[in-house]
Write a structure and sequence with these properties.
alpha+beta, Cytochrome Bc1 Complex, Chain A, domain 1, 32 helices, 23 strands, metal ion binding, protease, signal
Length: about 950
């Protein structure tokens, strides 16, 4: 049963046309429609007593196609279509490896209603962005085609259903199409290959040795992909693409009678050819010969990967089998979830207190209808994998040996209850695409969906079952299986052998009770006040909907928006300081570690453990990020917890704490992670690109292990304490809360802070830019020899006054991206997914960039630079044709229209406006800036910014070995 199926109905915000630029239209029709079939016994709920989600309507066509449709108005005007075919990589014969995935690509190439290469521009004309609104996915068990159609009307829905039906049951699959698409698939294999692919294959072998899952890689083999022909692919398609193996799911702002009728219209005439082929046997884990039933340790593997952090995984495996998705079955799942939550909390507590592992957790997964497994994942510190494994197994053994306490259970049950309550409250907010994906997932795992209210009701019915003995029984069942297999990944040869790993797992675990959680509850009422509550703030309207701006006597300002458009949810954001501008170059290690350790270093009486305990049964968040010109805390809460959420944020300023444990753990994580950057072109880009783009600015250099070794708790405090103590604070509070109570909570917390001193002048104003040059800067990686990457970056601007220009640059970048995709992906298969992006720091007068990048073979790096130069020069010298520009502006119009149904969208647009009121007025031109830009304006932008001699170039190529 899916626990996330909801019935959304979000009230669209009423905004002037000057703001949103367009109206959405509901895909309804006044013409008579056939009635929906009876829903007394829907196919999804066969054999289940889980109450039906009555907002879904189900049916089966005469040819066997199953369908499910529902109305959903989030985002307004959008309809999401999913077509799932019950064929994946495990349906392939050895000589067909990769065929399911290759066909997924080819159906977009050419089909009954789409001529050669027309799919992407066709969907773009309908307002769908390729890659996000239009996509597909192949897994070991299924292939799913996905369309999110914005601004849907009966006509565009009819056209979309026609197109996708032809793609599914009548693709061309010609030799000429295969010759074009096979290199693109191989580029995808190359970009996702290397170390990551080796680890995935090793994990599959460990998990499913002797089963099809172990040997069927979804992307396939180079030989079979290059050897694919229309005769073999068409035979594969005919064998598996049959009506009875297809499920069509539609959720969106349309009459379900209409969408059901369109499924019938376009899929009803499809006939399968010949008799159906039985599904292959996915097998089951086998018990090792002579194994101890109580500890059936089987195969172990040690994988040497010099650039990958240490990781140890062992799995207790059971055969996957069909289950009756009943209420009782779901109560068992909830008991499993509760038991694992207790166990994972104990593992986290041990890691924080100085264990031999950086992190560890236990998960239960049903993988690809092949195995039912309990997976234990451990990240050892400093190569002491034996000590780490012994500690983790000791904590698990304690859970197996002694039942958890009533307090343990109550804490985790309270956490679960918050989740289920939130899902009920926010059922009106879930997008149709998520609802459709959830139903597709339910079909894939052979389970059902249920409304949030039903899930919460089952949970409440289950509460009496949550006894210490029942939880212990479920833990024991999770660690009982037919075989235990293990995999250790390490950078060091000789550190372990398969025999060592097997011997460690065969050793009897000694129960370790040290990680049992402290039981004493903590209450916010016990904590000291931030200060004396302030007088009521000065209140003024912002002119943006019902958002008010509050000014407190201490200088804190807030943007305040109580609204019922976001039921059950309140968002709090706190913006302060100068962001990256606040750091000196020598502070780079402390800046990086602050993103991991600042929050967890505590506040007042609350260390990290106490922060967790005080949050039990509450909905509180505490995320932190560093932006170009500010720092930000963010938390999602609810009305009843709003005052406590505000207290947590305000206390970080009023009474910061500097516990060393979180810093030392973050330092260890940074050292472990560092070597992995060198393993691939993507890793080298993540490590070095921003540092290089910003003129070798040390603030943006990823700290080396040697730099991290010099980090001290006192040094951390010296860097971060002044940042928390100075400069103005802006608080955003928006969502479903009572205005008077929210105002009172602000007065007790942020209004009660002491007046803050002025923000100290930033170390630098803006950022330098990398030295341009005709020859690229060349870096190396230690991964596979067929992987490389290339980047071209041009400097642009920044600041609020240039926001219109920044939006035009986004349009220009997307036109550039479409051309680069056609040149590098479609014509040569040189790159799977080249990217072009624009960045414009709003808080700074400069520092913006436009960047084009791609992952390619080393031989293709010069081609990439030549192609980028050619496209940039053409954009600067010739106007973009109106038809080409529309392929970008129409999807952008739809994206902004969809975003305009979210309160969070508007609040993100006005962040910082309490300090710079120009940001309020800049929102009003948002839509027009994207959709009304003229070709000559884009040409002028390209001529100004995309200048060859001003570009910085980076090539990342493999090391010579």
């Amino acid at each position: 049963m899916s626990h996330f199926s909801r019935a959304p109905r979000l009230l669209s915000l009423v905004i002037s046309l000057a703001l949103i630029g367009a109206q959405t239209s509901s895909a309804r029709t006044a013409s008579p429609l056939p009635p929906l079939p009876s829903q007394d016994a829907p196919w999804l709920y066969k054999g289940s007593d889980v109450p039906h989600d009555r907002e879904w309507y189900f049916g089966v066509l005469d040819n066997g196609v199953r369908w499910a449709v529902r109305n959903n108005q989030v985002p307004p005007g959008q309809v999401s279509i999913r077509v799932r075919v019950d064929v994946g990589a495990m349906h392939e014969k050895p000589q067909e490896a990769g065929f399911a995935h290759l066909i997924e690509h080819l159906v977009f190439r050419q089909s009954r209603y789409l001529p050669q290469g027309a799919a992407i521009p066709t969907w773009q004309r309908l307002g769908a962005t390729f890659g996000s609104d239009t996509n597909a996915e192949t897994t070991p068990t299924a292939t799913t085609y996905k369309i999110d159609l914005p601004d849907a009307s009966p006509a565009t829905l009819d056209e979309s259903m026609k197109l996708i039906s032809g793609m599914v049951f009548a693709p061309n699959l010609s030799d000429s199409d295969i010759r074009i698409e096979a290199p693109i698939v191989l580029a995808e294999k190359r970009e996702r290959g290397g170390t990551a692919e080796r680890l995935m294959i090793a994990m599959r072998k460990m998990m499913a040795e002797g089963q099809p899952l172990a040997s069927h890689v979804t992307v396939g083999d180079v030989e079979t992909i290059n050897g694919a022909r229309q005769t073999t692919l068409r035979a594969f398609h005919q064998r598996w693409y049959r009506p009875e193996k297809v499920t069509v799911v539609v959720a969106g702002d349309a009459d379900p009678r209409l969408t059901a009728a369109l499924v019938t219209k376009w899929f009803g005439e499809w006939k399968g050819a010949g008799p159906a082929t039985p599904d292959p046997d996915f097998g089951a884990p086998a018990t090792p010969p002579g194994a101890d039933p109580a500890n059936p340790v089987g195969a172990a593997q040690v994988l040497i990967e010099p650039t990958v952090p240490r990781s140890l995984i062992y799995a207790v495996l059971r055969p996957w089998h069909e289950k009756q998705d009943t209420v009782v079955y779901n109560q068992g799942l909830m008991l499993d979830q509760l038991a694992l939550s207790i166990l994972n909390r104990r593992l986290e507590a041990r890691a924080r207190s100085g264990g031999n592992f950086l992190s560890a957790r236990v998960d239960q997964e049903n993988e690809s209808r092949s195995v039912d497994g309990t997976f234990v994942t451990v990240s050892p510190l400093d190569g002491n994998w034996r000590g780490a494994l012994a500690e983790v197994r000791g904590i698990i053994a304690d859970m197996l040996d002694r039942p958890p306490s009533v307090e343990d259970i109550a804490r985790e049950a309270a956490e679960m209850n918050v989740v289920f309550e939130s899902q009920v409250q926010q059922r009106a907010l879930l997008p149709g695409g998520k609802l459709a994906d959830d139903l597709v997932q339910a079909v894939d795992i052979h389970e059902t969906v249920a409304s949030p209210a039903v899930v919460q009701d089952i949970f409440k019915q289950s509460m009496p079952l949550f006894t210490p003995q029942a939880v212990q029984e479920h833990v024991r069942s999770l660690f009982a299986g037919k075989v235990i297999r293990s995999l250790y990944v390490t950078p060091e040869k000789g550190e372990a052998s398969p025999e060592d790993l097997r011997a460690a797992l065969l050793t009897k675990a000694v129960p370790d009770e040290r990680a049992r959680a402290a039981q004493k509850p903590i209450s916010f009422a016990q904590l000291p006040a931030i200060g004396a509550p302030s007088a009521p703030p000065e209140v003024r309207p912002t002119g943006m909907l019902d958002v008010q701006e509050l000014t407190f006597a201490n200088g804190v300002k807030a943007q305040f928006w109580p609204t019922k458009d976001d039921p059950g949810r309140v968002i709090v954001k706190v913006r302060f300081g100068a962001g990256w501008q606040a750091f000196k170059p020598a502070d780079n290690a402390y800046a990086t570690l602050g993103q991991l350790a600042l929050v967890s270093s505590g506040e007042g009486q609350l260390g990290q453990e106490e922060l967790d305990r005080i949050s039990a049964g509450r909905k509180l968040g505490f995320d932190f990020r560093i932006d170009d010109g500010s720092f930000q805390f963010t938390g999602e809460t609810r009305a009843e917890d709003l005052e406590d959420q505000l207290y947590l944020f305000a206390a970080k300023f009023a009474m910061p704490r500097w516990d060393s444990g979180p810093l030392l753990r973050a330092r260890a994580a940074g050292k472990i992670q560092f070597s992995s950057y060198a393993a691939s072109p993507q890793g080298v880009m993540e490590r070095d690109l921003r540092y290089l783009q910003r003129g070798n600015d040390e603030r943006f250099a990823v700290p080396t292990p040697q730099q991290l070794d010099k980090v001290t708790p006192e040094g951390f405090r010296q860097v971060w304490a002044p940042i928390l103590a100075q400069g103005p604070i802006e608080v955003q509070v928006f969502g479903d809360f009572d205005s008077a109570k929210g105002m009172e909570a602000l007065q007790k917390t942020f209004g009660a802070l002491a007046a803050r001193g002025p923000l100290q002048p930033a170390t630098t104003k803006g950022y330098a830019f990398a030295r341009p040059g005709a020859q690229p800067v060349t870096l190396t990686h230690s991964g596979d020899a067929n992987q490389a990457a290339a980047v071209v970056t041009w400097p642009t601007g920044g600041g609020v006054e240039g926001l219109t220009e920044s939006r035009h640059l986004e349009v220009l970048s997307q036109v550039f991206a479409n051309r680069l995709l056609a040149a590098m992906r479609e014509k040569s298969g040189a790159s799977y997914a080249p990217q072009v992006s624009a960045d414009w720091p709003i808080d700074l007068p400069g520092g913006g960039t436009v960047s084009a990048s791609a992952q390619v073979t080393p031989q293709m790096v010069p081609l990439f630079f030549e192609t980028v130069d050619r496209i940039a020069a053409d954009l600067a010298t010739r106007k973009i044709p109106a038809s080409e520009l529309a392929l970008v502006t129409e999807p952008l119009r739809q994206q902004v229209a969809r975003a305009s149904s979210s309160t969070a969208f508007f609040m993100s647009q006005i962040e910082g406006a309490t300090q710079d009121p120009r940001r309020y007025s800049q929102v009003r031109g948002l839509m027009a800036d994207y959709v009304s830009v003229k070709p000559e304006e884009l040409q002028a932008l390209a001529a100004r910014w995309l200048v060859k001699d001003r570009a910085f170039r980076l090539a990342i190529v493999p090391e010579r070995k």
